[in-house]
Design goal:
heterodimer, A: mainly alpha, Rna Polymerase Sigma Factor, Chain: A, 0% strand, elongated, B: 120 residues, alpha+beta, Alpha-Beta Plaits, 4-stranded antiparallel sheet, two-stranded antiparallel ribbon, 6 strands, 29% helix
Chain lengths: 413, 120
């Protein structure tokens, strides 16, 4: 029998919090009531389980306990009378029924409400992490480098809008789905990306993958959901190799491929293969396929750049953004040489994007133009969003040698 | 059911391409058809088109006096040009009507929930 401690209950909390909150919101139609009740149920679990053991279905126990708490609240508080008058669904007579019959779609309903296009992206992300991930307001604030009161205000405002404007609590119809799925996938992708640089990175990346996995199992017919999960897994497989022991960034081409997580690669690759068979490509599936090609290569030299370039051509066709064009230019540089890639960069409107200048610098270095490369590295470092990236770019600048940096500082050079 | 205001904003001095009589006729017909659809579905509560902002008048209390001035209240580039008040099951249903209106009139629409209906 496992030891019932804070860590075990914490694991159950992460697995079950979103499901319980989602079910209670469906039953009571009130987000705050659902959150409070589920938190109380976990507080009770922390007291009871270490003594009496974990119940056989901990999630069901939490949901049932939270539901009873919520009913108590509604009966006790004067606010309860108002709510009962407004509620769409009456509290059930038998609160234990739900435990045996969980409605699997509750989390789906909730994520579509959290990521409703009538809410700002930052509010969508905050709500998703708060309500489905069970992160505290302080944790969400910390992850996005925002002061806690600011984040609290953002969450209150978003929840108020859901209620006041009657943002529905349901899974969109098939006709609406493509448009409504886009912000949901973007929220998970942005959450993962925030985890690649921010202070609470590991937790955010884990949460994004966990939610993507839940979405993929709840919407097995949506190829892009599977594609996103594969993309996150294949990216995550390299996380241990992405930083050196001193915390500095290691580029894909210099990474120790032995440190890549083979289990994640296998899972990601299997999803990519299944996506290919479906033949209904979209931006996430194509990006996953690109990452799968990298994962297949034993070394940077062995990488099938021709295939990667073909995938970027496909990606650029479905999502013609300057950032995609920049990545395609990198692949082109590997296939046809740095000159061809450099020629493409001139057309891109990315002057404020640090990676644009980093890519340009690398191409100029390979073309034997160290002074120009130094200028581009300096510009990239000036725009870099994190200390690690800035340090990396200054390192690249130093590697060019002293003459290059001096010359780059001379006017008109 | 919830109630929403769909407000249509017109930008002062924004000279639109002058419409031909045929275009005007076509646009008018489209608006009529859409309003008929709103009414037959039971969504339409009220609607109206407003004169330009320089026809508005502001009335306000200053001390003990009520002062009347040439309007509008907020000097801005954009002003309320017209509105619909509709009943809808939820925001998605209201947004669906707003999408139809904006397609017909080619101007952005703001969707505001009323505070005095259930759940507001």
């Amino acid at each position: 029998m496992p030891v019932v401690d804070g860590a075990l209950i914490g694991r159950i909390f992460r697995d079950e919090y979103g499901r319980s909150v989602a079910t209670l919101i469906r039953i009571f139609g009130d987000i705050d009531l659902a959150e409070d009740a589920v938190q109380e149920a976990f507080a009770l679990a922390l007291r009871k389980w270490p003594v009496g053991g974990v119940p056989p279905n901990p999630g069901g126990w939490i949901t049932t306990t939270a539901r009873n708490r919520a009913i108590d609240h509604l009966r006790r508080e004067s606010r309860g009378r108002e709510l009962q008058g407004q509620r769409v669904v009456e509290p059930p007579d038998d609160p234990a029924r739900e435990e045996v019959e969980p409605v699997q779609d509750d989390r789906l309903r909730l994520i579509f409400t959290c990521c409703h296009p009538a809410l700002a992206t930052e509010a969508q992300i905050a709500l998703t992490l708060r309500l489905l991930g069970g992160l505290t307001t302080a944790e969400v604030a910390h992850a996005f480098l925002v002061a806690e009161p600011t984040m609290a205000k953002r969450l209150v405002r978003a929840k108020h809008k859901i209620k006041a404007a009657h943002i529905p609590y349901r899974v969109p119809s098939d006709a609406e789905l493509p448009e409504r799925l886009r912000p949901v996938l973007a929220v998970l992708y942005l959450t993962y990306n925030a985890g690649t640089s921010g202070p609470s990175g590991d937790g955010l990346r884990r949460e994004a993958i966990r939610l993507a996995r839940a979405m993929a199992s709840l919407m097995p017919d949506e190829a892009e959901v599977a594609g996103l999960l594969a993309l996150l897994l294949l990216t995550e497989s390299r996380s241990a190799a992405r930083f050196a022991a001193d915390g500095s960034i290691v580029l894909l081409r210099d990474q120790d491929r032995g440190a890549w997580d083979r289990t994640m690669i296998e899972e990601g690759r299997a999803i990519v293969r299944a996506c290919l068979r479906r033949n209904n490509p979209g931006p996430y599936q194509i990006q996953a396929a690109i990452n799968a090609v990298h994962a297949d290569a034993a070394s940077v030299e062995a990488t099938d750049w021709g295939q990667i370039l073909a995938l970027y051509d496909q990606l650029l066709a479905v999502s013609p953004t300057p950032v995609v064009a920049l990545n395609r230019a990198i692949a082109l540089g590997e296939v046809r040489g740095p000159n061809a890639a450099l020629a493409l960069l001139g057309n891109l409107d990315l002057d404020d994007y640090h990676l644009f200048h980093a890519v340009k610098a690398d191409l100029l270095r390979r073309l034997g133009r160290p002074a120009d490369a130094a200028r581009a590295y300096a510009r990239a470092a000036g725009l870099a969003p994190s200390d690690a990236e800035r340090a990396f770019l200054f390192g690249q600048l130093d590697d060019l040698g002293p003459t290059a940096s001096e010359r780059s500082e001379a006017p008109g050079s | 059911m919830a109630r929403y205001l769909l407000s249509v904003h017109s930008v002062d001095g924004e000279a639109r391409e002058p419409m031909t009589d045929v275009q005007m006729q076509h646009s008018w017909q489209e608006i009529q058809a859409l309003e008929a659809e709103m009414k037959s579905s039971g969504s339409w509560v009220f609607s109206g088109r407003l004169h330009d902002a320089d026809t508005a008048t502001v009335v306000r209390v200053s001390g003990d006096e009520v002062v009347t001035t040439d309007g509008p209240f907020v000097e801005a580039k954009e002003h309320l040009g017209g509105f619909y008040i509709i009943e809808a099951a939820d925001l998605d249903a209201a947004l669906a009507w707003a999408s139809k209106v904006t397609r017909v009139i080619s101007a952005p629409i703001e969707v505001w929930p009323f505070a005095d209906t259930a759940g507001g």
